[in-house]
Amino acid sequence: MCDPQVSIFDIPQFQQAVVITIEKSGERKHSISRTQTRNRTPAMNVSSSLFAPAPAAIAPYLERLRGSDALGMPLLTEPARLSLLAAAEALTYRRAKPYMGAPGREVQQDFEICMTFDANSPFTALAKSLGAQLRAAAREMPDPPLSDELRFNDIAVQRYTPGSAGISPHRDFLQFRQVVVLIILAGQGRFFVCDNREGLNPTEVPVKPGDALLMQAPDFGGQTRQPFHFLRDITEPRVVVGLRYDAKKAASSAD
Ligand SMILES: O=C(O)CCC(=O)C(=O)O
Ligand SMILES: [Fe+2]
């Protein structure tokens, strides 16, 4: 059985966002839906799909993820990447706390972050659409590593400036389950998985703008891995969308 490819262009809010962008391209200031943008967006082909891979193309990456902490997968078409980047540039960010965690186990982080998105935001649509796409891909596998409960209910857009210290070795919170997805919208930076908080045995996960970095989280394929990882060497402004399934939040909202 084969699910049709899920495309974010099936989602009315996103269609609207893109169409408005195209109609008003060339202006210095205009609005996309309810979010403000100030970008000149290049002409784009609205009929092109946001996501390049169909579920059948995603499944091999999920299969490979069983045997590795993290890997890169091509995800966004170029028009989709540019459209999301324009939307990301219009967001309001706050500076992340420079240090997180208990004394002696602090994680150093050097970025700006936005974590609030309204229902019409293209990032909300992206989270829904990619969740559906990953569930569809898993369903096609003989032994699905993701469950049908997976919903990306935690969205964060992070932006790093060149010279940023990135983020030091850490594990994402335990309540983030199944898979963590980091979608690279722009920039250069080196992402590594490693064995501990000291950064032992770093292995780089090569990704480029338009790719999604998939990282194992507890419950992926019945495993409990919660990989250490870090980011450094940011040489170009980097914008990343993090999509996570917060199982604690899902349980409390189901009460
Ligand atoms: O921005 C990245 O590539 C990594 C960020 C990260 O690991 C985190 O925010 O937990
Ligand atoms: Fe992380």
Outline the secondary-structure elements.
Blueprint: H1 12-23, E1 30-32, E2 35-37, H2 55-65, E3 70-74, H3 78-89, E4 94-95, E5 99-100, E6 107-110, E7 112-114, H4 122-139, E8 154-160, E9 166-170, E10 176-194, E11 203-204, E12 211-216, E13 228-246, H5 247-254
Helix pairs in contact: 2-4
This protein binds 2-oxoglutaric acid and fe (ii) ion.
Residues 170, 172, 229 line the site of fe (ii) ion.
* Separation, N- and C-terminal Cα atoms: 34 Å
Task: Output mean pLDDT.
Answer: 83
Q: What's the number of extended β-strand segments?
A: 13
Number of helices: 5
For the CA atoms, what is the radius of gyration? 18 Å
Assign an overall shape: globular
H-E string: HEEHEHEEEEHEEEEEEH
Helix- and strand-based class?
alpha+beta
Unreliable parts: 1-48
Query: How is the quaternary structure best described?
Result: single chain
> Per CATH, which architecture?
Sandwich
Tally of separate domains: 1
Instruction: Provide the CATH superfamily.
Output: q2cbj1_9rhob like domain
Bound molecules: 2-oxoglutaric acid, fe (ii) ion
Strand content: 25-35%
CATH class wording: Mainly Beta
CATH topology value: Jelly Rolls
Sheet with the most strands, sense and barrel status: 11 strands, antiparallel
Helix-residue proportion:
10-25%
